[in-house]
């Protein structure tokens, strides 16, 4: 819920009483009616798939977040609400992934399997699959496109890791534990 109000005059932090001229409360929906949310626990891959309403076929997006870990779904649900099948992928810090939770304990084959899961989906246009990454997810997106044999149709990298990346302990892309 977002409350938007129009206030009279100039507003400064030192003022106590401010006359509200108009106000409205808007509710932001993260998932459109008819979008299907499907939990994925398949071939060791953990994530949530969002499918737009209708028969498709649809373009698709593999959605990777950053070093916060876990499984963040709202961007994928928004993408599905706009006509893309979107797969929000967990790759560390999730209860259904190999422990410990503070290291990336899945390798390149994990990401390749996730991408192939999208390619094999009957409602996906298999040659129109992109990858979107935020922060450390940018590093993973670029790694998928250059190291795994996967050929995404586009990459979107938002705020890539600035100045630091977690050193990899092997060629498969795994890391040591981090804080």
UniProtKB/TrEMBL annotation:
<dbReference type="Pfam" id="PF08840">
    <property type="entry name" value="BAAT_C"/>
</dbReference>
<feature type="domain" description="BAAT/Acyl-CoA thioester hydrolase C-terminal">
    <location>
        <begin position="109"/>
        <end position="165"/>
    </location>
</feature>
<protein>
    <recommendedName>
        <fullName>BAAT/Acyl-CoA thioester hydrolase C-terminal domain-containing protein</fullName>
    </recommendedName>
</protein>
<dbReference type="InterPro" id="IPR014940">
    <property type="entry name" value="BAAT_C"/>
</dbReference>
<dbReference type="InterPro" id="IPR029058">
    <property type="entry name" value="AB_hydrolase_fold"/>
</dbReference>
């Amino acid at each position: 819920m977002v409350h938007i109000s129009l206030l009279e005059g100039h507003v400064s932090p030192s003022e106590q009483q401010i006359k509200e001229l108009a106000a409205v409360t808007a509710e932001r929906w993260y998932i459109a009616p008819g979008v299907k949310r499907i939990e994925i626990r398949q071939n060791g891959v953990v994530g949530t798939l969002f499918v737009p309403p209708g028969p498709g076929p649809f373009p698709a997006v593999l959605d990777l977040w950053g070093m916060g870990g876990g499984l963040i779904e709202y961007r994928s649900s928004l993408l599905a609400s706009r006509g893309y099948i979107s797969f929000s992928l967990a790759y560390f810090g999730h209860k259904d992934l190999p422990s410990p939770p503070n290291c990336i304990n899945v390798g390149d084959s994990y990401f390749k399997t996730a991408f192939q899961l999208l390619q094999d989906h009957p409602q996906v246009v298999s040659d129109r699959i992109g990858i979107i990454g935020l922060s450390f997810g940018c590093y993973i997106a670029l790694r998928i496109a250059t190291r795994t044999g996967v050929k995404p149709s586009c990459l979107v990298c938002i705020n890539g890791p600035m100045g630091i990346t977690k050193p990899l302990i092997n060629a498969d892309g795994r890391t040591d534990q981090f804080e």
